[in-house]
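Rather than argue in generalities, we reproduce a single protein record, letters for residues, whole numbers for local backbone shapes, just as it appears below:
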Amino acid sequence: MKRILFSCLIIFCTLTSFSEDTITPRQNVKYNLSSPYHSIITFLKYLQEDNYHPKIAAKAFDQRNISEEEAIDYAIKLKQALDGKGVFIKIDDLPRNSRYFDTIAQKHIYILSKDIPEIYIELVGRRWVFPENTFPHIIAFHNHVYPFGTEKLLEVLPKFGEEKYLGLFLWQIIALLIYIFLSVVFHKLLSFIIEKFIHKSANRMGYPELANSYYLPIARPISILIIFLIFIALLPALQLPVGMYHYINIGIKILMPVFATLVFYKMVDVLCLYLDNLAGKSDTGLDDQLVPLIRKVLKVVVVIIGSLFILQNLNVNITALLAGISIGGLAFALAAQDTLKNFFGSLMIFLDKPFQIGHWITSGDIDGTVEEVGFRSTRVRTFRNSLTYVPNGKLADATIDNHGLRNYRRFSTTISITYDTPTPLIEAFVEGLNRIIVEHPNTRKDFHIVRLNDFAPSSLNILFYTFFDVPTWEDELRCREEIILKIINLADFLKIRFAYPTQTIYMGKEPEKPKTTTANNEDVDYFKKQLDTFFVNKK
């Protein structure tokens, strides 16, 4: 009798040691919600295909203000979202302490995953359950993983075959192959449609030649990006194993920014094409040189931003990385002062525009024509036909004489004639020189000087000072030649002798004055008539 009573007492104590949540009489399935570990195990374990008991899994949800059917719906949606997103929960890391306390949140909660901090379990009474305030986040998380109602595919896809190949069921392998096949087909179709649209639009705008060079390289990456987004949206419906989806998710996080970066990288060429058209309308050649530099800078910026997005998607602490880069950048800046000085010197050249491509400049020992302005140096072609590389930092601080900005090109020379030239003939010669300047098509008419200017030891000097209105040095030399030849012809017509350095030695008495070769007529009118005759004949 005592043994029977003792056995009944043991059975009673054993039964009462379980809470009402431990045994479900209808299904005779045990569950435990005494710690975060046991609650999450209960939630995950009883939603497996080989152990499917959604009513038991729903016990891990707070049902005080919702029905059992609603709790089951939340449980199923959360499981689908976790599997579709590939959220990996390390069972061994789950706390088994029934009084677990989150020191950061200062609550008795446990966050399911750091990727979804809004979804957690909380100690309610003596049970760890998903609280009511997490239910809206579960729905939002499910909608994020299955946008546009793609969770319907979970019901449509036929789940046949229980054997696994490479960790996947047969239906998953077939569905994955169908996904890939349809992605390739849709990519070809979408690329064809986009290309046709681009060709048609380019022909309407009158730029058919630009389609193949600039627009089509953008169409293909855009098509790949769209198909990739569709593929990502449909992929959760396959319910791939968490371990496999983990690596797929890493690949997705890398490829998404790569495709987006590729699109923007190609769009830089289109933007620079527009800038090229603007630069072609400007009078300055430096703008044409600036566009390739902008293209390089923008492409580097796009690649850097794309790389940062990839690192961020891989959960790299970008803030700490940038802080480390800034410290390293400071050290690099100190070590590369000259490079940075040249870089900012190039910016000053582009902003101030002290010269343009093709201008003849002089700065210290530098004398030549500007051929190219880079980020570090400027290339100057000297008149010896050598190429000089001048650091932009040095050029930005130097004094630059820009001959290319001259409105006119000066021609100044001294014409020396002999002392025995009669005064009327000198006056006629000076007037003829003025007329040579006035009648030349490329001389400045509003300002020029021709005057008898100096008594030299062996000559009378006439200052010949004028300007040419020509764009290049070659044109200037041509005009000089034309003017000099006309001066020689005028002197020959008037029989004026050009002086050359001579010395006269006096021996006792002054020698006879040499006879002039000019006419012995000092009448000014006579020489003016001679000038008229000269210029009429030249015309």
Remarks:
- The longest strand covers residues 459-468.
